[in-house]
Design brief:
Number of helices: 10
Helix content: 40-55%
CATH class: Alpha Beta
CATH superfamily: Glycoside hydrolase/deacetylase
Shape: globular
Number of strands: 9
Order of helices and strands: EEHEHEHEHEHHEHEHEHH
Distance between the termini: 27 Å
Structural class: alpha/beta
Largest sheet: 5 strands, parallel
CATH topology: TIM Barrel
Bound molecules: zinc ion
Strand content: 5-15%
CATH architecture: Alpha-Beta Barrel
């Protein structure tokens, strides 16, 4: 792993990491349409995933659950320095096959944000986590969050549809897990002020965006900033995300994007699935 900037131990910023697929190269679909629609641009091999987590731990990062991070924010108004949270979007089956075993080996908590359409319909979907797998993950201490029922573009659909997606997926997870989901991740990072109000009204304690990086505080609990790191941790983007200095220098850009997003202007859903 390269020597990334991190500042003195305990001074680097906190990060909420966003992953999608964990799979070895031979498991990648050959169909270009599946590669695109299932977000395979964001794939880490199990070995890369493990190396990345071990690297962060060596650098002094403390892995905490999303609930623990929210507790830090509620108690002190902001995150502890160098906390790191692992999250997954979309609920792909490879998270179960390849992701959870690495996390358990290293004793690292994580949140899986899943769509619930297939759980509700009762139609099995071999590409996604089943109800039984979600129950098993929850029993083993992982957090299960909502990614809506149908990966809805929440800022663009009608308000009744957005409400149904948020409320319905929470109830679907309650049916499977015995308790409703506390946390939400906006599909495609698509949200605005109306969507934030709906997330609050439908009972979510916090929601994750794909905006980042910036520092999470009590102000950002409905658009928690998350970061995508490259598999090899060797890009300029990785340096930017893990450096306290560049995060501070460029946070105005993130704030600008956030203002536009809340106002419902700007480019619409983010590029990340
Ligand atoms: Zn997604």
């Amino acid at each position: 792993m390269p020597d990334l900037p991190g500042g003195r131990p305990g001074t680097a910023p906190s990060v909420i990491l966003l992953y999608h697929h964990i799979a070895p190269p031979e498991d990648l679909p050959r169909d270009p349409e599946r590669l695109r629609s299932e977000g395979w641009a964001f794939v880490h091999s199990p070995a890369e995933f493990q190396r990345q987590l071990e690297f962060l731990r060596r650098r002094g990062y403390q892995f905490v659950s999303l609930g623990e991070l929210l507790g830090q924010i509620e108690d002190q108004g902001q995150e502890h320095p160098q906390s790191v949270v692992v999250t997954f979007d979309d609920g792909w089956i490879d998270n179960w096959v390849h992701g959870a075993p690495v996390l358990e080996k290293l004793g690292i908590p994580a949140t899986f944000f899943v769509t619930t359409g297939h759980l509700r319909s009762g139609q099995p979907d071999s590409t996604r986590l089943s109800g039984g797998q979600l129950r098993s993950l929850a029993d083993r201490g992982f957090t299960i969050g909502s990614h809506t029922r149908n990966h809805a573009d929440l800022a663009r659909v009608r308000v009744e549809v957005a409400r149904e997606e948020l409320q319905g997926s929470r109830l679907d997870l309650e049916r499977v897990l015995g308790r409703p989901a506390d946390f939400l991740a906006y599909p495609g990072g698509s949200f605005n002020a109306r969507v934030v109000d709906l997330a609050r009204q439908t009972g979510y304690r916090a929601a994750c965006s794909v905006l980042g990086p910036d520092r999470n505080t009590s102000d950002s609990r409905y658009w928690l900033f998350r970061d995508v790191l490259s598999p090899g941790l060797n890009t300029l983007g990785d340096r930017y995300r893990l450096s306290p200095l560049t995060r501070r220098m460029f946070s105005f850009r993130v704030r600008d994007k956030l203002r536009k997003r809340l106002a419902g202007v700007g480019p619409g859903p983010d590029e990340e699935p």
